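User: When convenient, might I ask for sequence and structure tokens for a protein?

AI:
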Amino acid sequence: MAAKQGWDRREFLRTAVGAAATTALSGFSPLRAMQLPRGQKAVVVTFGGGARDEETFAPEGQENIPHMIRELIPQATFFTQVINRGILGHYVATASLATGVYETWNNFALTAPRNPTVFEYFRRDLKRPAQDAWVVAPSNGFNRIGSSDHRSYGENFGAQVILPKQLLAAAMSGKGGVDYDHLLRDNYESPTSVPTAPSREEDIHRTAEILKLSLSDFTAHAKSLASPDELSVYIARQLMQQLAPSLLWITLHDIDIAHSGAYSLYIDGIRRSDRLCGEIWQAIEANPEYKGRTTMFILPDFGRDSDLNPGGNGFQHHRTGDALSRTTWMMVLGPGVRQNTVINRPVDSLDLVPTLGGLMGFSTSLAKGSPLQEVL
């Protein structure tokens, strides 16, 4: 089933991007790509709440992802079969992507990863300062994702984590926030709320100072935004402008509104995520600190259930562990990455961390995945 899905996605891409992709397929060999310039950077964009092919890469779904189809894939190497063999919960799955090891704790626990994260490998091995690795995360449940509790690594080598919803909630404290309710919804997956990570007022103000934001300007701008992911991308762009971190990880979460059962909102989430990915790439290309030396990775954490599986709820959930829930894709674009190239072999979602290590020159010794030679 997974192999058939990968082949179908390859066929979808043929129709979407034309004969150039076919040429790239037939002529590709996994040799080393062009040498990247020194001082390279990486931006990773993950989706908490994957989308099925029917609503994206299938012919009937391509209208929902015009930026990926028309702008990004023609510049990218596209992996059609990325398999997630771990727990299909968004925090634990995203932590697995960030460690290169399938983490196994309760998805709703405020728990640090057990294994070193890519941020710890990056900072410890390359002796990078704290402000060179950042995570922009979608909900309070992600507050521990920046570093593990591994005794040889830990928070002294981790990424700094910004939770835009927490920042907004703190800025609105005592002022009434009805105009911001659509930005503060924290959990679509469970009827019970995720525990809120404690925050200190001095930490909120410190973050605002780092981003060179006044809290009043931030709240005024937030009122104009349509979703939590727009808020996250706004914060990520501020980080890029003010600090230009070499390793930036952004997790989008709007698609996960599918858990509400509203198909129209699920489609809106897909369309918004597609647009925001295009905006992130435009921000990279427009920023002299990033242009020409940044590799961008885009991938869902996992998929969603098939309509044909009686044990699932179709687009609404990801509970069955079937091929549609576990098989996704990854797009890689940037200098040295082959353009308009489709890779149809199955790869593992754990391969992301070793690939980042190979790209940027740091060891990922405890990760279980394998470097993707097609982009190294």
Notes: The two ends are 29 Å apart (CA to CA).
